[in-house]
Amino acid sequence: MKKILYFVICCGLAATIFADNNIMPPAQKLRWAETAIADLYVDTVNEDQLVETAIKSMLEELDPHSSYTTAEETREMNEPLNGNFSGIGITFNMNKDTLYVISPVAGGPSERAGILAGDRIITVNDTSIAGVKMKNSDIMKRLRGPKGTRVDVRVLRHSSGKNDSIDFRLTRADIPIYSIDAAYMADPTTGYIRVNRFAAETNNEFIEAVEKLKKQGMTGLILDLVDNGGGYLNAAVDILGELLEPGNTAVYTEGRQSPIHYFEAHPKSRTPLFNKGRLVVMVNQNSASAAEITSGAIQDWDRGVIVGRRTFGKGLVQRPIPFPDGSMIRLTVAHYYTPSGRDIQKPYTKGDASGYRHDILDRLNSGELMHADSIKYIDSLKVSTLKLGREIYGGGGISPDLFVPLDTTAFTNYYRDVIAKGALNQFVIKYVDTHRKEIKKLYGNDRKFIDGFKVTDEMLADLYETAKAEGVEPNEEEAARSRQLFEMQIKALIGRDIYDQATYFKVYNLYDPIFKEALRIVNSPDYDSILSKKN
User: Is 147 a catalytic residue?
Assistant: First the structure.
């Protein structure tokens, strides 16, 4: 009897579902399937998880950039692009389950309360966060919170050879997230600006940086977009408004349900800040999306020279579709095209996200990152620049005007292991903790530090011992090959922790081949040769 009843229920359900000549819209079919599982499945099911899995599975069958994020993931993703979050205002590193303050944010709650660089935060609202193996994300949740709310923290401060415990009560406030890491004069006439993402406040930061550098004598500009993964399309268009002639097309988009739309370059004020003067843009294989819009438009209009390696090749526009619970779909709705008509989206197979993610590794294995002649161009994707008629190509990123190979000889397995195990981070934190006052007294400002500070053999030996203690197998031959990289990273990180983020790049760029080539070309007759020839 039970078997008969079960059979009747199943037949009744099937008859209901497949009524009307077995025709059912796909969306309704999906809803019916979810309802059937929720109502009839033998065990209890998590409907939220079930639906999220279904959404993710659908999107995985599309392009590699359509995605679903939970409410928490959406908030974490949007914070850097929105330009601020609410918290206590510190930059920090974690070492051995201890939070070390690198620096308090200028004007933020921590600085106003008296928290100093080098302090260790050990409790938050009477909950210990030191030595308990708490996840970084959990620590962040405790430090962040609604604007105006209070949080109690206890810090250990190393002073006069002892650790003092100090309690602070902080009121959370809006903390800016800057998208420009550094803006300084690389030589008496060349300014340098590094943009790490294209966010809501990026153009305002960029304008402020350009105005500052022009007052210092800038006549040429190096714009560093290396490792810039993109961001807001409009932020890229706004920056192009300060670099191109007013009214020039910056980019255009088009999709099946998205009519063609042109974005023109227009300055924030009456005239562009830097549409004259030499311009060099640094890019590499990790420069993507809005970074490619920017570099592509500059190349198309023959406005500047692109230096580095072929960019990532992300030419798809995502539209955010939020759900009431805070989760979100980012659905690809269009391609974007550079002003000359280049579709720079690299090829992909729908549903094969894994193969797409391995593209950069494929470039490395093929030799493309080390040899310019390894880049394979397709003649049918060849176009001409808009002013000089130079040959350029679409179909897979922005290819530089000047190629700079990736130097793989110094990136040894030993170097990678030291970084991955956190040994370098540990060494720098310990060194800065014991030498901060000495370095500040000896050098004063960052310029004197950059000119005078040397990484010694003793420091390197200490680093290698730290790495050994973390389980990194010693390798003298590889350590010797990576010595210059270790010296650069040690000095740059010490400079960052004692001075600011810009100091890191002031040191790093002294070693960086892409920057060296950018600085050479911006001051060379070769600049005019590149931007005058027709292929």
Answer: no
Backbone phi, psi, residue 349, to 5°: -110, 125
Q: What is the CATH number of the domain that holds 138?
A: 2.30.42.10
The pLDDT, as a whole number, for residue 11 is 44
Is residue 289 annotated as part of the catalytic site, yes or no?
yes
**Catalytic residue (one of 110, 238, 314, 446):** 314
Q: Are residues 362 and 486 in the same domain?
A: no
Dump pLDDT digits (tens) for 321-363. 999 999 999 999 999 999 999 998 998 888 888 888 888 888 8
Stated as kind and residue range, the H or E segment containing 157 is: strand 150-159
Domain count, the chain: 3
Are 198 and 212 in the same domain?
yes
What is the token pair recorded at 187?
């030589």
- Residue 354 annotated in active site: no
If we measure between CA atoms, which residue out of 3, 8, 32, 4 comes closest to residue 18? 32
Question: Could you give the residue ranges of the DSSP H alpha helices within 301-380?
Answer: 353-357, 359-366
- Catalytic pick among 66, 179, 289, 327: 289
Give residue 217's pLDDT: 98
Q: Are residues 350 and 257 in the same domain?
A: yes
Residue of 300, 359, 401, 497 marked active site: 300
- Positions in the chain short of pLDDT 50: 1-15, 17
What CATH number does residue 185 fall under? 3.90.226.10
Residues 100 and 215 grouped into a single domain: no
Q: Find how far residue 280's CA is from the centre of its chain.
A: 20
> Residue 442 belongs to what domain range?
413-518
What is the per-residue pLDDT across 447-498, written as a single tens digit (0 to 9) for each? Answer: 999 999 999 999 999 999 999 999 999 999 999 999 999 999 999 999 999 9
